[in-house]
From TrEMBL:
SUPFAM superfamilies: Homeodomain-like, Tetracyclin repressor-like, C-terminal domain. Keywords: DNA-binding. It comes from Streptomyces nigra. The keyword DNA-binding applies. This is TetR/AcrR family transcriptional regulator. The lineage of its organism: Bacteria, Bacillati, Actinomycetota, Actinomycetes, Kitasatosporales. Residues 37-56 bind DNA.
């Protein structure tokens, strides 16, 4: 019978995995996807080649892990708010989306894909299928659930999800792709989320959605 790895060994393996992912992200950004070898990543991560190959047999597998890691929603809470209060649910999703987009490394991940996708279109497909779309689908499902609960009126939950996430990312994230020092303060970011929520309530909210008839930001007189 094969012995199960101890908690210590699992923790060490997780630490090495994190080091590999961080080193690969830096090197892909600095030297390009094609210009970075697995051997160089192992050296930068401070692990042996055998350790790296044990976790990631190919560079494509490593990139998939990077995408999955950065798009992972894991803050100790349920990924989807319970339907029944559209305002509260959208506020929760909006704050989580900001945290996701502004985490260290997310902008670098997008820059890698944008730079390399003409030569390696599979990188764009990986980012889309393993990162963006699974997250988008959770938001679409939430809005569809609010519609089913009668707290939102939606003709198309997919369109509504696109609108909500787009309003936030267009202020919080996309300028970062062109402006190296784009760092809006917490008040400006919170206002961007508030305004996106208010727009969604005005367009899709119902009286049962807790906010359709009063769309002022929380705390306003």
């Amino acid at each position: 019978m094969t012995a199960q790895p101890s908690e210590y060994h699992r923790r060490v393996a997780a630490q090495k995995r994190t080091s590999i992912i961080e080193a690969a992200t830096r090197l892909f950004l600095d030297s390009g996807y094609d210009g970075t070898s697995l051997a160089r990543i192992a050296e930068a991560a401070g692990v042996s080649r055998a350790t790296l190959f044990k976790q990631f047999a190919t560079k494509a597998a490593l990139f998939e892990a990077i995408v999955t890691e950065y798009w992972k929603v894991d803050d100790g809470e349920a990924p989807l708010p319970e339907p029944g209060n559209l305002r509260a649910g959208l506020e929760t999703i909006g704050r989580r989306y900001v945290a996701l987009l502004t985490q260290p490394g997310m902008a670098a991940l997008f820059r890698i894909v944008i730079a390399e996708v003409p030569r390696f279109p599979e990188l764009g497909e990986t980012q889309f299928k393993l990162g963006k779309m699974p997250y988008f689908e959770t938001v679409r499902r939430y809005l569809a659930a609010e519609d089913a609960a009668g707290t939102a009126r939606l003709d198309d939950a997919e369109t509504a999800a696109t609108q909500f996430l787009g309003m936030i990312s267009n202020y919080v994230f996309w300028p970062r792709m062109l402006l190296a020092h784009w760092e809006p303060d917490d008040t400006a970011v919170a206002n961007a989320v508030d305004q996106a929520v208010l727009t969604m309530l005005a367009r899709y909210g119902t009286p049962d959605g807790h906010g359709a008839s009063d769309t002022r930001p929380h705390g306003s007189a």
